[in-house]
Specification:
This protein has one domain. About 35% of the residues lie in helices and about 15% in strands. The chain is built from 13 helices and 17 strands. The strands form five sheets. The protein has a seven-stranded parallel beta sheet, sandwiched between helices. A three-stranded mixed beta sheet has the order 2-1-17, with no helix packed on it. A three-stranded antiparallel beta sheet has the order 12-11-13, sandwiched between helices. A hairpin with a 5-residue loop joins strand 6 and strand 7. Helix 3 packs across helix 8 and helix 7 packs antiparallel against helix 9. It is globular and about 75 Å long. The two termini are about 50 Å apart.
């Protein structure tokens, strides 16, 4: 191509060469020929929600700790309160479309719009215009942004008045017919699979003792848990290390220290109870724990499950995830997911080993994150070499460290796919554009 300069100023090309070698052409080839899957983790929404940090490990240690039931309940409730306040409760701002959530919703909507355009432009007649978005997040960012855009998506719920969850709702093809010539065409559809449940999932028992999952439009259950938390807060322990370590996300204090503090606090309550001042086991803590356990989410600990129905649903969704990775010519794009979830990590590793046509593309948020990914997903265990790590480019001198946020994922990787291709310049033309002087007037 020719590099164009106007009045000596070089004109920037639309498409820049990517420093990480995943060019738009290479990415275009992948999405044109593969079944599209995305795995989205907490890092993707970290601009609005707090990262999980070591919460999963802390809750697992509490479950395995040697302590009396009241002590463990107090420690567990204190950690769950932090998770609820920072990850679950803010969803009320999202569904209310509060101003505080505007920027993150714009980021999600922009990304989804780009993917929708990519699906529309797919030329392959062998592949459906569908993309699977698997996420461990319980937030409502995808749902709200998709509704704002008006794109088609399946989240497992069917019905309008009282939507009920059914795994069979995923994967259905959708077509539209022209009103005049009755020409049918396939509509892009996103299958939004929330592996760890959602803030809007509400469990309801039936007469036959089975439990169904329904869509909670107004987050009524989340608001009820918030009220229970407000009552329990005076009894809960501070759970974060102070000051927080840099670049580690929220770090929970050692569980042994939390248990010691809980035992001391409960002992003091027993002493005051002897004087008739208060209860030795505050009911407010138990009420919050009971309310929290009703949430339709998979708890962030290695035991994962709160109820049998969530257990069954989790495994159904995990099986769907595994089945998609086993399909011939599939790709899994990963963003914001740390792979510390042992179950999901092993599924991806096994699929990469057994399906040589699977391509796993992991977008690392920063260059510093790469060693952690390489340790969790060692190349020596992937005989097919089909796991690729994409890192930000090396910053120039004096430039801030580059990050692959959701905005960057869209602007630098997927958006160029739907732009017109602009080749690199091979020569230069100088254009001197001048404004002609007006003819002298005779008047």
């Amino acid at each position: 191509m020719t590099e164009v300069r106007i009045n000596g100023v070089p004109q920037q090309p639309v498409v820049d060469i990517q420093p990480n070698h995943l060019s738009p052409d290479r990415l275009r080839t992948i999405v044109e020929s593969a079944h599209l899957n995305f795995l989205i983790g907490a890092g993707t929404s970290s601009a609005f929600f707090a990262a999980l940090g070591n919460i999963e490990d802390a809750l697992t240690e509490v479950a395995e700790a040697v302590a009396d039931a009241a002590t463990k309940m107090l420690v567990r409730a204190s950690i769950q309160a932090y998770f609820f306040e920072n990850v679950v409760a803010p969803n009320t701002s999202i569904i209310d479309r509060d101003e505080s959530a505007e920027q993150v919703l714009i980021s999600y909507a922009t990304f989804v719009r780009t993917l929708n355009r990519i699906l529309l432009r797919r030329h392959s007649t062998l592949l459906s215009k569908q993309a699977n978005i698997f996420t461990t997040n319980v937030d409502m960012l995808f749902e709200v942004s998709m509704e704002q855009l008006g794109v088609e998506y399946a989240d497992g719920f069917s019905g309008k008045i009282h939507p009920k969850f059914d795994v069979g709702d995923f994967g259905a093809l959708r077509f539209q017919t022209g009103s005049r010539f009755e020409k049918r065409f396939e509509v892009p559809v996103f299958n939004l699979v929330k592996i760890h449940g959602s803030a809007t999932w509400k469990q309801q028992k039936r007469a036959d003792r089975r439990t169904d999952i329904y869509f909670d439009h107004g987050l009524t259950l989340v608001r009820e848990v918030g009220e229970a938390l407000s009552a329990a807060k005076p009894h809960l322990l501070p759970v974060l290390i102070d000051p927080q370590p840099k670049d580690q996300g929220p770090t929970i204090r050692p569980v042994v220290d939390l248990i010691a503090d809980a035992e001391q606090y409960l002992t003091q309550l027993e002493l005051t109870d002897a004087n008739g001042n208060t209860s030795s086991n505050p009911s407010d803590i138990a009420n919050f724990s009971t309310s929290y356990d009703k949430l339709g989410i998979v708890n962030p600990d290695k035991r994962k499950f709160a109820t049998t129905v969530l257990n069954e649903t989790y495994y159904e969704l995990i099986r769907r995830f595994a089945n998609e990775l086993e399909k011939e010519n599939s790709v899994l794009f990963v963003h914001g997911f740390s792979f510390r979830d042992e179950h999901l990590r092993e599924l991806v590793m096994r699929a990469a080993r057994t399906n040589p046509t699977l391509q796993v593309v992991i977008f690392c948020y920063s260059r510093e994150a790469l060693p952690d990914y390489e340790k969790l997903l060692p190349d020596t265990e992937i005989k097919n070499g089909n796991i690729v790590f994409v890192t930000p480019g090396q910053p120039n001198e004096g430039e801030a460290e580059r990050k692959i946020s959701l905005d960057v994922l869209d602007s630098d990787f997927f958006a160029p796919i739907v732009r017109d291709k602009v080749p690199a310049p091979d020569q230069r033309i100088e254009l001197d554009i001048r404004t002609a002087s007006p003819e002298p007037s005779n008047e």
